[in-house]
Design brief:
Blueprint lengths: L9 H13 L3 H17 L7 E5 L3 E6 L2 E7 L4 E5 L9 E4 L14 E5 L5 H6 L1 H13 L10 H9 L3 E2 L13 H11 L6 H11 L3 H10 L16 E4 L8 H4 L5 E4 L1 H8 L3 E3 L5 E3 L24 H10 L5
Antiparallel strand pairs: 1-2, 1-7, 2-3, 3-4, 4-6, 5-6, 8-9, 10-11
Helix pairs in contact: 1-2, 6-7, 7-8
Length: about 325
């Protein structure tokens, strides 16, 4: 199974950049490709939050205004870590967010190796990539403003690509049913490559489907109004397994929900009536403990109603 996508041929673009900027140095070029492949594989933040770009002086993977990994034309290699790595020959810089985020709370470190000769050493260091994974799991925590519209527009204007557009997380991260759905899509010869990309990302709650829901619900939970999009889940109303390919990408077949609401909705412990009022299954004990309160409601449009009717009839647990 190949989990990288080909809608954006990042390897060819990166090889061309290396050869143009540094000449046809094959060892350097292939090491840079392997370095970014390792970076993509170990990135644990949502892939629609990470951006990859190739520019005149640098190729880089970024979140907001922070470089997660980068290679300069001079040969300098950069990587975000959560600790000093004494076995790696590199310069270390403390990452300072602002005065309210001290290094004890967010001890992120940017390691920069001055020579490309250290790339094989970086690639072979299990502890280094464990540190990188840890950073990318929490790099969005200090400031949601890193994903503000200004950063998104700047990345798009600079020709950067969301990681979710061309790279899939390792299937080991997903439950068996999700892995099976992804494999079925990926192996279906009747689905166009670009559509496979959209469908797979929709299945894992990233990419186009999530972006449609974020725009429609204005980055807020559809029920509670909670406003941190990093904590919200793109939920299908009519389940993925029962939906057509078009329905799987239809924003009216989706709600943006907090994790507790998403889990309860997905498992059929809650649903919404035609007026959008929350109904709680008698099988869900102590819903208030989960922040699920009778009388909650969601504003539904006519286009939502067929999907919600399906949910009430086929997913909701009446008893």
């Amino acid at each position: 199974m190949v989990w990288s996508m080909e809608t954006f041929d990042w390897q060819t673009e990166l090889r061309s950049w290396c050869q143009k900027q540094r000449g046809d140095v094959r060892a350097f070029t292939e090491n840079v490709v392997l370095f970014f492949r390792k970076s993509f594989e170990n990135t644990r933040c949502p892939h629609d939050k990470a951006w990859f770009g190739i520019h005149k002086s640098r190729a880089s993977l970024m979140v907001g205004n922070l470089w997660l990994s980068s290679v300069r034309t001079s040969g300098e290699i950069g990587l975000m870590l959560n600790q000093y790595m004494p076995d790696i020959e590199a310069l270390y810089k403390q990452v300072i967010f602002n005065s309210s985020h001290d290094k004890e709370n967010y001890p992120l470190i940017y390691a920069e190796a001055k020579s490309p000769r250290v790339i094989p050493e970086l690639l072979a260091s299990a502890s280094l990539w464990e540190s990188f994974r840890s950073v990318t799991q929490r790099v969005l925590t200090p400031s949601g403003s890193w994903q503000a519209d200004g950063y998104v527009r700047r990345n798009e204007d600079n020709g950067k690509r969301r990681l979710s557009e061309f790279w899939l997380p390792s299937p080991e991260k997903f439950y068996d049913d999700v892995k099976s759905d992804i494999e079925n899509i990926w192996n279906d010869p009747n689905i166009r490559q670009t559509e496979k990309t959209e469908l797979v990302n929709a299945r894992i709650g990233q990419g186009i489907f999530r972006q449609k829901l974020l725009r429609y619900w204005k980055d807020c939970c559809a029920v509670t109004g909670y406003k941190n999009p990093d904590m919200l889940i793109a939920s299908h109303i009519k389940p993925w397994s029962a939906s057509s390919n078009a329905e799987r990408l239809d924003p009216f077949n989706g709600l943006l929900l907090t994790p507790n609401l998403d889990r309860a909705f997905d498992k059929g412990f809650i649903t919404f009536d035609e007026d959008g009022v929350l109904a709680v299954s008698p099988l869900l004990t102590e819903p208030e403990t989960l922040g699920i309160v009778r009388g909650m409601r969601v504003v539904l449009q006519p286009q939502h109603r067929p999907f919600m009717a399906y949910h009430r009839e086929h997913v909701y647990l009446m008893k």
